[in-house]
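Input.
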Amino acid sequence: MSSIFNGDLDDFTLVLILFILLVIVGCSCDN
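Output.
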């Protein structure tokens, strides 16, 4: 998990983080 914050982000990790943020924002907007 620490390797994610070491600056060596790959495209898959970025897409995964963006998708998780989208889901969190979407759920909070639904409520």
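Helices lie at 11-30.
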